[in-house]
């Protein structure tokens, strides 16, 4: 059992992060009424601005390896909690169809991109803690590079979709 846990440690931490953020967003959303304003749009954002914002979040998550994954955990937890609060608030103030329309299409791509970055950070932290070295092999380096590139592509797609939906 311990070998299984260590082998899939990144996935267990991701699962715990998701469950914790869902729980917290439910608790917080209970305190928000339909008369509260939690989202205001003062500006029309461009695809590039949205992409850069999401890419910076990805960089912070991946570079969380420098804090042994702690900053990655915090950024992912807060991102997921914010998405959850927005989801529950929108669901309370509009319909399920509208809520899904606003969150699922671009959110799916955005979350996959951020989760890939979170996985990379946790993978590198686990490699460091278990192997007690900062050197990773060529295969692991290529895996990390591929995951970051794929995550970046997902974030770019999410930015385009977000402009189409919210624009």
UniProtKB/TrEMBL annotation:
<keyword id="KW-1133">Transmembrane helix</keyword>
<feature type="transmembrane region" description="Helical">
    <location>
        <begin position="73"/>
        <end position="91"/>
    </location>
</feature>
<feature type="transmembrane region" description="Helical">
    <location>
        <begin position="141"/>
        <end position="166"/>
    </location>
</feature>
<feature type="transmembrane region" description="Helical">
    <location>
        <begin position="45"/>
        <end position="66"/>
    </location>
</feature>
<keyword id="KW-0472">Membrane</keyword>
<feature type="transmembrane region" description="Helical">
    <location>
        <begin position="111"/>
        <end position="129"/>
    </location>
</feature>
<keyword id="KW-0812">Transmembrane</keyword>
<protein>
    <submittedName>
        <fullName>Membrane protein SpoIIM required for sporulation</fullName>
    </submittedName>
</protein>
<feature type="transmembrane region" description="Helical">
    <location>
        <begin position="12"/>
        <end position="33"/>
    </location>
</feature>
<dbReference type="Pfam" id="PF01944">
    <property type="entry name" value="SpoIIM"/>
</dbReference>
<dbReference type="InterPro" id="IPR002798">
    <property type="entry name" value="SpoIIM-like"/>
</dbReference>
């Amino acid at each position: 059992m311990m070998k299984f846990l260590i082998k899939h440690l990144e996935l267990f931490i991701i699962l715990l992060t998701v469950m914790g953020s869902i729980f917290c967003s439910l608790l917080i959303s209970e305190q928000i009424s339909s008369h509260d304003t939690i989202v205001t749009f003062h500006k029309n954002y461009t695809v590039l601005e949205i992409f850069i914002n999401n890419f910076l979040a990805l960089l912070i998550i991946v570079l969380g390896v420098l804090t042994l994954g702690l900053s990655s955990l915090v950024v992912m937890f807060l991102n997921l909690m914010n998405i959850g609060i927005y989801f529950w608030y929108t669901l309370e103030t509009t319909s399920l169809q509208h809520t899904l329309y606003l969150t699922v299409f671009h959110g799916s791509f955005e979350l996959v991109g951020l989760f890939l970055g979170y996985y990379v950070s946790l993978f590198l932290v686990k490699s460091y803690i278990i192997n007690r070295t900062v050197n990773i092999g060529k295969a692991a380096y290529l895996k990390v590079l591929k995951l970051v590139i794929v995550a970046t592509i997902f974030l770019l797609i999410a930015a385009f979709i977000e402009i189409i939906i919210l624009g």
